[in-house]
Amino acid sequence: MKTSTGARVGQYAALLAYLVFLAFPFLWLISIAFKPPRELASLHPTWIPEHPTLDNFRHAFDEQPLLRAGLNSLLAALGAAVIAVLIATPMAYVMARRRGRLTKAATGWVVVSQAFPFVLLIIPLFLVLKNLGLINSVPGLVMVYVVWSLPFALWMLAGYVRAVPRELEEAAAVDGAGRLRTLVSVTAPLLAPGIVATALFAFITAWNEFFFALVLLKTPEKQTLPVILTHFIGAEGVADLGPLAAAAFLATLPSLLVFALIQRRITGGMLAGAVKS
């Protein structure tokens, strides 16, 4: 009993330390966002601002087009999430239900593609978008995000499809429903939680992405929030710390709120692949 209690206390202590480690950067970011310049330059910084102010937020909006960048990020993230789910749902159904060399090769490719570094992909993607005339455009960025998020969306939705009992589809086939009708009327409603979780995960990934947006978007009118945040850093590497922290805090809030809402669904989607009917 003592050993079990000691092990449990150790586990909770480790978990608490891990949570503190994860929360420290975000809490420090909030602290900086509300500090006036005098406190930011202090040699003895404090966690809680002594004279909290909203000037950093006002300066952030005055210095950079945060609203327009936020709209660009929203359009890119929403477009990528919707298109990725529309493509991944029928493909995941085929991968989960069909057994053969082709589906095994497709599954292996999905896993291997996640190991590709960004630098390896950016040159061919850039050339393709250039030939299509989609460089420096939000639709071109959406295409890149769809390509990047599609493998994970396939893997995640395939787990949900495997969790759906085959007997339901067999009953629909007995009633005369074809494959497409079965997918739309029987399987898709049961996949709704997985589809929502996958779409929101793709949204978060696109919302926080920086590298592709930096390379493909040239003009400030087209750039997304992660790229605009770099404009608070001067040519000599000196950051306008207060406005940067305020803008970063605002840019982080949507992805944190979305992830807090879907984290249980994401976990369920990952575990669904381990369940066999």
Keywords:
277 residues; mainly alpha; 77% helix
Question: What is the topological layout?
Answer:
Blueprint: H1 2-33, H2 37-40, H3 55-63, H4 66-97, H5 101-113, H6 118-132, H7 138-163, H8 166-174, H9 179-190, H10 192-208, H11 211-216, H12 225-229, H13 241-272
Helix pairs in contact: 1-13, 3-13, 4-7, 4-10, 5-7, 7-10, 7-13, 8-9, 10-13
Description:
Residues 269-277 have low confidence and may be disordered. This protein has helices at residues 2-33, 37-40, 55-63, 66-97, 101-113, 118-132, 138-163, 166-174, 179-190, 192-208, 211-216, 225-229, 241-272. The longest helix has 32 residues, at 2-33. It contains 13 helices and no strands. Helix content is 77%, strand content 0%. It is globular. It is mainly α and 277 residues long.
Largest sheet: none
Tell me, what's the shape? Answer: globular
Total number of helices:
13
Give the termini distance in whole angstroms. Answer: 38 Å
| Unreliable runs | 269-277
**Nearest-integer average pLDDT:** 82
Number of strands: 0
Looking at how many chains there are and whether they match, the oligomeric state comes to: single chain
The succession of helices and strands, N to C, reads HHHHHHHHHHHHH
Q: Into which percentage range does the β-strand content fall?
A: under 5%
- Rg: 23 Å
